[in-house]
Specification:
This protein has 553 residues and is mostly helical. Helix content is 73%, strand content 1%. The longest helix has 51 residues, at 151-201.
Length: 553
């Protein structure tokens, strides 16, 4: 066992042991503990759990890699995902917490009707499956490199651990596990970033020091067959940059597994403050990601530029074993680098390896390499657990309990939820082994689906009392079908031939158009159908204002 494998085993094994102990000590036997943690989570802890739930493998493993190859256009992920939390804190979190239900489909069912609840539950499952596929893939990548497993084997191991502590503790166990996972992932992300910043610039604060290398990075990138790092709209058309950013923003504010977190706080005020703490904790990583992307790309290009294939640094061979780094068979010297396998470049790198490989590329000691591996797994598994809980709750609480067995006991509902979670794990393992794109791109698809389904009908449900059940159902179905069809059509999934983007709109950005379609259809159908009952109007009125004001009305 190499020193890197030894330290990785220590870091990963130690962190896993902590997670499982927390899950075991937090195990629950009642639905309120399983789904909303008895609504007793302190705001700071809930903010850390929200941050861990949301800062998935896409944020930790893949985002900086995409920024490294997209350059300034990679800001779509930074602006979209952080901006979405502002929307979430202002528009949704306090009102949904005051409504006081377990799941987003339950809110939709109470606000509109039982038939709309079913549509929402199905949509929540589709969104969550899309999102969890990226997390399983991220876990598989970590295991494949550091524990010498195939990516497929790594996905299976990650899935088994996630299933164990998610089933044991439900939301209560997941929440406290995610607090520990946030601690691991943020420490694992920041320490290498500070070390590389000090090594390259002499200033150990990456957020302010990475600008020193940008001019040289531009030159290196062009020499190696890539676009200049700081050139705007070099990797994506301007319209697509706008649409992807907006899709990620409103998708954040409509994600079921994030929204459900605000049901776990002690009060409405706690929900609002949880959003603040989450944004602060998220900001620590997101202000560091551009520096990590720039530093890693600079180090990587500097080490391979003009080198003979047999003289490349050891990290290239290490990652070649995972098949996530490949060298053109007839290449003797590395003159061009790309992340596109069809480019014909001498060296092809998968975006998803750059953060995990960053300590090796920079020549940092083995303990830091092991820490980064533990952080990557913490990021992947914390989000995957939350997503599996959404799938479980949507099935057991919104489908099984409402449609199949209305008199189901707590024990039966928990059993149904855990069975659904197990089935979800198996399906998500397949999706993780056969993903349609890079981790961050797969996650962006989930945000687009959430943007086109949940965001419009939740916002209209809170702020427009005239919204009807027929309008909400029509809007959700139209938005979901439209967005899914475009993604399948442009990505070439399920046997469909791959097609070019229409008007330069990528599948990551189509969620914005889907949300607009949803808004239009919901409003038009609502205007053409009978207004909601008085009790619905009064219910909406009660969550729109503080308790005292609502009572006065």
């Amino acid at each position: 066992m190499s020193s890197i494998q030894l330290w990785t085993t220590i870091a990963v094994g130690g962190s896993f042991l902590v997670y499982i102990v927390i899950a075991w000590r937090s195990r629950v036997k009642e639905t309120s503990g399983f789904y909303v943690a008895d609504r007793g989570i302190p705001t700071v802890a809930n903010g850390a759990a929200v941050a861990a739930d949301w800062m998935s493998a896409a944020s930790f493993i893949s985002m900086a890699g995409l920024i490294a190859f997209l350059g300034s256009d990679g800001s779509i992920y930074l602006m979209g995902w952080t901006g979405g939390y502002v929307l979430l804190a202002l528009l949704l979190a306090p009102y949904l917490r005051k409504w006081g239900k377990y799941t987003v489909p339950e809110f939709v069912g109470d606000r509109y009707s039982e038939s709309v609840r079913i549509v929402a539950a199905v949509a929540a499952i589709i969104v969550s499956f899309t999102y969890v596929a990226g997390q399983m893939r991220g876990g598989g990548i970590v295991f494949s490199r550091f524990l010498e497993l195939s990516v497929s084997g790594g996905v299976w191991v990650a899935a088994g651990v996630i299933f164990l502590y998610a089933v044991l503790g439900g939301m209560k166990g997941i929440t406290w596990t995610q607090v520990a996972q946030y601690t691991v992932l943020i420490v694992a992300y920041l320490i290498p970033a500070f070390a590389v910043a000090q090594k390259l610039t002499g200033i150990p604060i990456p957020q302010i020091s990475f600008g020193q290398i940008l001019a040289e990075l531009d030159s290196l990138s062009v020499e190696m067959g890539l676009k200049a790092y700081t050139e705007a709209f070099a990797s994506r058309p301007q319209i697509d940059v706008f649409l992807v950013t907006m899709s990620l923003m409103i998708g954040t504010a409509g994600l079921p597994h994030v929204i459900i977190r605000f049901y776990t706080t002690k009060s409405v005020r706690g929900a609002r403050y949880s959003a603040f703490w989450a944004l602060l904790f998220i900001g620590l990583l997101y202000t560091t990601a551009p520096a990590v992307g720039a530093f890693t790309k600079f180090n990587m290009l500097s080490e391979v530029q003009g080198k003979a294939v047999d003289a490349l640094p050891s990290w290239v061979a290490n990652w070649q074993a995972t098949q996530l780094v490949t060298i053109r068979p007839d290449a003797t010297v590395i003159n061009t680098v790309s992340n596109n396998p069809a480019s014909g470049a001498d060296l092809i790198l998968n975006n998803d390896i750059l953060v995990l490989a960053s300590p090796e590329i920079a020549g940092l000691p083995a303990p830091i390499v092991g820490l980064v591996a533990a952080g990557g797994l913490a990021a992947a598994m914390s989000t995957a657990a939350g997503l599996l809980l959404v799938i479980s709750s949507s099935f057991s609480h919104d489908l099984f309990f409402r449609l199949v067995k209305r008199d189901a006991s707590d024990r039966q509902r928990l059993l149904a939820g855990r069975i659904a979670m197990g089935i979800a794990v198996l399906i998500s393992v397949y999706a993780g082994i056969n993903p349609p794109a890079y981790v961050a791109q797969v996650v962006a698809f989930a945000f687009g689906l959430a943007a086109s389904t949940f965001f419009p009908i939740i916002v209209l449900g809170i702020f427009w009392k005239r919204t009807t059940a027929a309008g909400a159902a029509a809007g959700m179905i139209t938005g979901l079908v439209f967005t899914l069809f475009y993604m399948i059509w442009t990505l070439g999934l399920f046997g469909v031939a791959r097609h070019d983007h229409i008007f330069d709109i990528s599948p990551e950005g189509i969620g914005t158009i889907g949300a607009i379609v949803n808004f239009i259809v919901t409003i038009v159908v609502s205007k053409l159908t009978r207004p909601p009952a008085d009790r619905i109007v009064e219910m909406v009125e009660s969550i729109r204002y503080p308790a005292e004001r609502a009572a006065a009305k």
